[in-house]
Design brief:
Layout: E1 3-7, H1 13-29, H2 42-50, E2 54-59, E3 62-70, E4 94-101, H3 110-124, E5 129-135, H4 139-147, E6 151-157, E7 165-172
Parallel strand pairs: 4-5
Antiparallel strand pairs: 1-2, 2-3, 3-4, 5-7, 6-7
Enzyme class: transferase
Pfam families: Acetyltransf_1
InterPro entries: Acyl_CoA_acyltransferase, GNAT_dom
Amino acid sequence: MTRYVRQATNADLPAMMTIIAQGRQALAAEQIPQWQGAYPQAADIQADITAKRAWLLIVDGKIAGTAALLTTPDPNYRQIYHGNWAGNANATYTSIHRIAIASGYHGQHLADFYFSNLMTLSYQAGFRQIRVDTHRLNQRMQHIITKAGFDYRGVVYMANDATDQRNAYQVML
C-alpha cells in the first residue's frame, strides 16, 4: 500500500466534499452534533485549498482523507477553560481542522499515519506545537488524537458560544 500526503488542488474539491459528507453521516450515526449544520461547506474547503492549507491523504493513488493544517492563530483557541495550553500560550502553533477519512478506509489506522505526516509538515515549517479540538462526544477522534501523542488541555468554545464546546488537545514537538 502506497501512502503519502499532498496539498489539495481545486480539482480535488468534489472528492473532499464527498469525504466531508461521509464524516457528517458517521457523526450523525453516533449522535454526535459536530458537523450537523452547514459547517463545513464547500466554501470552507475551497478557502483551505486557496490558502494552501488543505492536505490530502493519498492511498494507492486515491484520495482517502482530507484535513486543514492552519499556520495562523485560531481565534477559538485564544481562551481555554478548565485547563491551559502547555508552554508559552502565545507561541506560534499549527492547528488541525476539518479532518476526515473516507468511509471505505475506516479501520486501517490511516489517521495515525495522517496525523504523523501533519506533525512532520508542522515541524518542517518551523512550528513546535500543534493544537486540535473535537466534540466532547466524539470518542473515536479523542482516541485518535491522544494515540497520536496529543495531551488533553481543556475546553474551548467555538465562536465564543458556550453551548458549542470542544475538548482541546496539544502536542509539543
